[in-house]
Design brief:
The protein is mainly alpha-helical. It has 13 helices and 7 strands. The protein has a 5-stranded parallel sheet with strand order 3-4-5-6-7, with no helix packed on it. Helix 8 (201-209) packs parallel to helix 9. The chain starts with 16 loop residues before the first strand and ends with a helix. 14% of the residues are buried.
């Protein structure tokens, strides 16, 4: 017959005590009554022992410094600063006990600790056996060949900029630039300014009105002196034109007034494929109106309207533009800076679907 016994261990914890009394007995002590029994000298001693970082104390009572002198007058900050500067200039520097002597070592000189054998073994290079053929090739390789090999492998830190680009372009290594060569600065190339846009505004508007079959692309970019009247004449002539395919109005001072008229003209356009209105003064709601007009046109494949008066469109505007783009089956490229990831991903996915659909339709037509 087997018997089992269990042992129960009981831990008795004694309550914490202070001056022979339990801490619970101090809960009902009147602190104010105790402080009233102390003398001013005892209160000052007690105040110096208080934690200065106690957040329950006001800031003016956390400092133990006390000045018992009577004030000599009101505080004059300017005179106080002048007095401090004067005292600093008139107070002589403390004399050096031993003047500085170059090359003389005073005190204990620091010496690096001795390195153990294990540390030396860790820092030793790892020997890689690449075979006799590769060993012989690297041993007999010239400096230029090693630099070319480093450029191919992407070891940029082994060479300077001139050596790297010379290796990529296969121009041969520059003379005098070895491993320790220093790249010298090159004189900046000055390119001529782009010529101004000399497009005849009045003649171009007249050709748009007359539906000139040779006028397929109209570029008014960077023409600053186009008046609103000229732009209105151009936009009034767009609906009746059946040959213009590309219209660029970058940096021409388009405002909401003229941009809304452009949106109305796009709705009636029959042949316009590319529209560029970047770098103007169009507000976000007007950009939405332009994107909405593309739904009725159904011919515009590329629309660009970035860098406007408002650099941030906002979540509401971006969601409206995203919904309008997702309804458009002809738009292939959109030049707008969208801040939110959801809008960017949805627009990109829809434009890719449009591109794939058009590509498949063209392949079917060829078959």
């Amino acid at each position: 017959m087997e018997t089992s016994s269990t042992t129960k261990t009981t831990t008795i914890s004694t309550p914490a005590k202070l001056y022979g009394k339990d801490l619970s007995e101090y809960d009902e002590v009147d602190v104010d009554a105790l402080l009233a029994q102390l003398s001013p000298e005892e209160i000052n001693i007690l105040a110096k022992e208080v934690d200065p970082d106690d957040s329950f104390l006001p800031p003016n009572e956390r400092c133990s410094y006390e000045c018992e002198k009577e004030p000599t007058g009101p505080l004059d900050r300017k005179k106080l600063i002048e007095h401090i500067n004067k005292q600093a200039l008139e107070t002589p520097d403390l004399p050096e006990n031993e003047p500085y002597v170059k090359g003389t070592v005073r005190g204990k000189k620091w010496l690096p600790p001795a390195r153990s054998e294990k540390d030396k073994e860790v820092e030793e290079g790892i020997a890689i056996d690449m075979g006799e053929e590769y060993e012989q090739a690297l041993t007999s390789a010239t400096q230029e060949e090693i630099i070319d090999l480093a450029a191919i492998l992407g070891f940029h830190s082994m060479m300077n900029q001139d050596q790297y680009h010379a290796s990529l372009l296969n121009k041969g290594q520059p003379i005098g630039l070895g491993w320790d060569g220093i790249t010298k600065s090159q004189q900046q190339k000055v390119y001529p300014m782009d010529p101004p846009n000399n497009t005849d505004i009045e003649d171009s508007i007249k050709r748009v009105k007359d539906d000139d079959p040779k006028l397929i692309e109209l570029n008014f970019n960077n023409i600053k002196n186009i008046s609103d009247e000229k732009l209105i004449q151009l936009f009034d002539a767009l609906p009746d034109n059946e040959h213009l395919e590309v219209l660029s109005l970058t940096n021409v001072g388009l405002t909401d007034k003229t941009a809304l008229l452009l949106a109305q003209a796009i709705e009636k356009s029959k042949t316009l494929r590319v529209l560029n209105v970047e770098t103007n003064f169009i507000s976000p709601p007007t950009i939405v109106a332009l994107v909405r007009s593309l739904l009725k046109a159904r011919t515009v494949e590329e629309f660009r309207a970035s860098n406007q008066r408002s650099s941030v469109l906002g979540n509401k505007i971006e969601m409206e533009i995203t919904e309008l783009v997702e309804k458009n089956s002809s738009l292939l490229r959109l030049g707008l800076h969208l801040e939110f990831n959801d809008a960017r991903h949805r627009v990109a996915a829809h434009l890719q679907r449009n591109i794939d659909r058009i590509r498949l339709s063209r392949l079917n037509q060829r078959k």
